[in-house]
UniProtKB/TrEMBL annotation, chain A:
It is an enzyme of class 2 (transferase). This is Thiosulfate sulfurtransferase YnjE. Keywords: Repeat, Signal, Transferase. Residues 1-22 form the signal peptide. InterPro entries: Rhodanese-like_dom, Rhodanese-like_dom_sf, Thiosulphate_STrfase_CS, TST/MPST-like. It comes from Thermotalea metallivorans. It holds the Pfam family Rhodanese. Residues 54-162, 185-292, 326-447 form the Rhodanese domain.
Automatic annotation (TrEMBL), chain B:
The keyword Transmembrane applies. Keywords: Membrane, Transmembrane, Transmembrane helix. It comes from the Bacteria. It comes from Thermotalea metallivorans. The chain crosses the membrane at residues 12-32, 52-78, 90-108, 114-135. This is Uncharacterized protein.
C-alpha cells in the first residue's frame, strides 16, 4: 500500500513537471513568434536614402530635438539643419505630459504624412531618438521602418540640408547653458524670465541661474497696451542693463510674454535677441541647474543707439490701413482664434467689440487668447515652417508679401512675427494696436462673420 | 421681543452686505496685482468711467454730497441725546461719509486699479447705512 502511494505520488510529480515544461516552451515560442511578427527596423544607406527623397511612398522623418531640425548643429553633427524634404517628429514629443496626448500625436502623424502604407526613414544623431520613435510607430501599426544616422549625411557637404535662415533666434537649452558657462566670452549678456506682474510665481519657484524677472508692464502701457514711448523704452533698457549690443536671452513658463518683449527689443534696436525654444520646460528637461534666489537688475548708462533703430518692425494704425489698402501686395494677418476672427466672441473681458478689421485675413492661432496651438508643437517648440507657410497659403498669405500680424493686444502676433523672422520672411511687422485699437474707433471699418472667400 | 428680533436680523443682514461689498472690492484690487486679465479689465473700466461719471465735475458733486451727509450726521449726533444703537449707526454713517471724502481727495486713491469700484462701494455702503438708520427709527423709541 505504502509502495503504491509512493509510486502514485512520483507519477503525479512527473506529470506536473512535464505539463509545466510544455507550458514554458509554448510561451517562449510565442514570444519568439511575437518578436518575429514585429516589423524589423532596418538600416538604410546614405545612397539609398538619397534616392528615396521626393518619392511619394517614402517619408523622411527627423526625430531629433526641434532645435536640431531648425538648424542647430547638436549631438556632434558637422552641419546643422535637416535633410532637405524631411518632416519632423521629435522623440521628445513622446515624453510630453499633456491631456489627450495620444490623440494629438495621431493627428500629428496624419498631418505629416507618416502613415502605415509609407516607407518611413527615421533619422537621429544620438542613436536613441530614432529607436524611440520607431517603437512608437510600430505600436501604431507602421511596418516599413528604417533608421539612419544623420551624422553621415551632415558630414558630406554635397548632400542637401536645409535650415531656417534665422534659426539662431530660437535657442536650445544647451546654448543658453554654454552662454552661462563661457560668460559669453566676455561680451555683455542678460537672461530674463518674462511674465506679467511685479512678482512672478514662476520666477520664484525656480529660474535659469542669473536670470532676472521682467514684468511685461515695463514695456507696454494702458489704455491700449501698446509698447511704451521710445523714451520710456530707453529707461526700461537702461534699468535692465540692456544695450544695443547685449546678447539678450528671453524665456518664460509660457513663451508668449518672452516673444512679446523680444519683438519690442528688436524694434528698439537690440541686435542679438534670443528666445529659449519651448520655454522653461526645455531647460528643466535638459537637467540643468535651477536657482530660486532672486537676482537684482543691473543697470547701464547708455543704450548706445537711437530708439527705435528698427521702426518698421512694429507698426501702428496708419501703416495697418496702408497694408489693407494694398490687397495684393500686403496682408494684415489676424492671429486670433477663428471665433474671434469671425466675431463670435471678443476673446477678452476688456474688449467689447467683436469682429475684425475689414480686409484682414485669418492667419490661424489657437483655441483662445492664451494659446497658440497652430504654431507650436506639443512640446511648445516652433512648428514646422513649411506647415505654417502651407496654412497661410490657404488664405492667400505668401512669404513675398508685406505681412503685418496682429491679435488683440500684440502677444500672440509677436510670437508669430518672431517665427516668421526665424523662417527668413523679409517684409514683416507687428501691428501693435491690434483689434483693441482698431475697434476703439467706430470710424474704422469692421467685418463680422465668415469671410466670403479665402 | 418679536420686534427686537426682526430689528436684529435686519441689522445683521445689512451689516453682512456692507462687509461683503467692502471685502469684495478689496479682493478685486488684490487680484488685479495677481492676474493680468483682472488688472486690464479694471483699468479698462477705469478709463471708460473717467470719460463718464468720473469727470472732475462729478467728483466735485460726490464730495459735496458726502460733505453734506457728514454735516447732517454730525449735527444730528450732537443735537440728539438718544442713546443706544441708533446713535451708533449715526456715528458709523458719519465715519463712512468722512472716509469717502478722504478717499476721493487722496491723490494715491486714484492709483488703485479698482478705484471706480471703491467709489461705488462707498456710496452703496452709505445707502445701506442710511437704511439701517431709518430702520432703527432714528429719533423714535
Amino acid at each position: 500500500m505504502h509502495m503504491i502511494k509512493k509510486k502514485a505520488l512520483l507519477f503525479i510529480l512527473l506529470l506536473s513537471s512535464l505539463v509545466l515544461f510544455a507550458a514554458c516552451t509554448s510561451s517562449t515560442q510565442e514570444a519568439v513568434k511575437g518578436k518575429k511578427d514585429q516589423p524589423e527596423i532596418q538600416d538604410i544607406s546614405t545612397q539609398d536614402l538619397q534616392s528615396k527623397i521626393g518619392q511619394k511612398d517614402w517619408v523622411i522623418v527627423d526625430t531629433r530635438l526641434n532645435d536640431a531640425f531648425n538648424g542647430w548643429a547638436l549631438d556632434g553633427v558637422a552641419r546643422g539643419g535637416r535633410i532637405k524634404g524631411a518632416v519632423d517628429f521629435s522623440a521628445n514629443w513622446l515624453k510630453v505630459e499633456i491631456e489627450n496626448r495620444e490623440e494629438k500625436l495621431q493627428q500629428i502623424l496624419e498631418t505629416k504624412g507618416i502613415t502605415p502604407e509609407k516607407n518611413i526613414v527615421l533619422y537621429d544623431a544620438n542613436g536613441k531618438d530614432a529607436v524611440e520613435v520607431a517603437d512608437y510607430l510600430i505600436s501604431k501599426g507602421m511596418k516599413h521602418i528604417y533608421k539612419y544616422d544623420v551624422k553621415e549625411w551632415a558630414a558630406s557637404k554635397e548632400l542637401p540640408m536645409e535650415s531656417y535662415e534665422n534659426y539662431h533666434l530660437l535657442v536650445p537649452a544647451v546654448w543658453v547653458n554654454d552662454l552661462i558657462q563661457t560668460q559669453n566670452n566676455g561680451k555683455p549678456y542678460r537672461i530674463f524670465e518674462v511674465s506679467w506682474g511685479e512678482e512672478s510665481q514662476d520666477y520664484k519657484k525656480g529660474h535659469i541661474p542669473g536670470a532676472v524677472h521682467i514684468n511685461t508692464d515695463e514695456v507696454e502701457e494702458p489704455p491700449l497696451w501698446n509698447r511704451k514711448s521710445p523714451e520710456n523704452l530707453e529707461k526700461f533698457a537702461l534699468l535692465n542693463g540692456i544695450t544695443y549690443d547685449t546678447t539678450v536671452v528671453l524665456y518664460g513658463s509660457d513663451s508668449m510674454a518672452a516673444f512679446r518683449v523680444a519683438a519690442i527689443l528688436k524694434y528698439m534696436g537690440v541686435e542679438d535677441v534670443r528666445v529659449l525654444n519651448g520655454g522653461f520646460a526645455t531647460w528643466v528637461n535638459a537637467g540643468y541647474d535651477v536657482e530660486t534666489q532672486a537676482n537684482d537688475k543691473t543697470s547701464v548708462d547708455s543704450f548706445g543707439a537711437t530708439i527705435p533703430a528698427n521702426p518698421d518692425y512694429i507698426i501702428d494704425l496708419p501703416q495697418a490701413k496702408e497694408i489693407l489698402a494694398d490687397a495684393n501686395g500686403s496682408k494684415l494677418v489676424d492671429i486670433r482664434s477663428w471665433d474671434e476672427y469671425t466675431g463670435k466672441i471678443t476673446g477678452y473681458d476688456y474688449i467689447k467689440a467683436k469682429g475684425r478689421p475689414a480686409g484682414a485675413v485669418w492667419g490661424y492661432a489657437g483655441s483662445d487668447p492664451n494659446h497658440l496651438e497652430d504654431f507650436r508643437n506639443i512640446d511648445n517648440t516652433m512648428r514646422n515652417g513649411s506647415e505654417i507657410i502651407n496654412m497661410w497659403q490657404e488664405w492667400g498669405i505668401t512669404p513675398d508679401q508685406r505681412l503685418a500680424f496682429y491679435c488683440g493686444t500684440g502677444w500672440r502676433a509677436a510670437e508669430v512675427l518672431i517665427y516668421a523672422d526665424v523662417m527668413g520672411l523679409k517684409n514683416i511687422s507687428l501691428y501693435d494696436g491690434g483689434w483693441y485699437e482698431w475697434s476703439s474707433d467706430p470710424a474704422n471699418p469692421v467685418e463680422i462673420g465668415e469671410p466670403k472667400q479665402k | 421681543m418679536k420686534k427686537d428680533a426682526k430689528k436684529a436680523m435686519v441689522n445683521i443682514f445689512i451689516l453682512m452686505m456692507q462687509w461683503t461689498i467692502f471685502f469684495s472690492i478689496i479682493g478685486l484690487e488684490y487680484l488685479s496685482h495677481k492676474r493680468m486679465g483682472v488688472m486690464r479689465y479694471l483699468l479698462f473700466k477705469k478709463y471708460t468711467y473717467e470719460t463718464l461719471w468720473l469727470q472732475p465735475y462729478f467728483i466735485n458733486v460726490y464730495v459735496s454730497v458726502l460733505f453734506g451727509g457728514l454735516v447732517i450726521c454730525l449735527f444730528w449726533y450732537i443735537h440728539r441725546k438718544d442713546k443706544g444703537s441708533a446713535r451708533r449707526h449715526l456715528l458709523l454713517a458719519f465715519i463712512i461719509n468722512l472716509a469717502g471724502i478722504f478717499f476721493i481727495l487722496a491723490p494715491k486713491g486714484r492709483n488703485l486699479n479698482a478705484y471706480p469700484f471703491f467709489l461705488i462701494g462707498i456710496f452703496i455702503n452709505l445707502i445701506l447705512q442710511y437704511t439701517r438708520l431709518w430702520f432703527n427709527r432714528m429719533g423714535y423709541k
